[in-house]
Amino acid sequence: xxxxxxxxxxxxxxxxxxxxxxxxxxxxxxxxxxxxxxxxxxxxxxxxxxxxxxxxxxxxxxxxxxxxxxxxxxxxxxxxxxxxxxxxxxxxxxxxxxxxxxxxxxxxxxxxxxxxxxxxxxxxxxxxxxxxxxxxxx
Length: 138
Fold this sequence. Notes:
By secondary structure, the chain is an alpha/beta fold. The protein is 20% helix and 25% strand.
């Protein structure tokens, strides 16, 4: 039976692994891990804490980057404080700009951009530099 995720794969434009390392490694705080030898330079892999779960970044076709999609992974944070800290860090990167900056980010203190309802936990959304929608939740 299924017991969890091994990894989620997100696509980015060709030649943007440096931006992936900045956004996923530095801004989100994920730990870079080695990729298969024959795929170096075409993939970036990141560990999600000590969960044995990973985020894989791979180059996608130009057709992968059309209108924004609602498809997204949701990253679970360990506490409300960590969720607030990460939201601020992502917002700061968005405001600072640059090649690896998120395309969109929910501003700290403002309402989050997702659907509303009591069923939804405390959360926020962002779009990475390639437009991938990301959710962060308790």
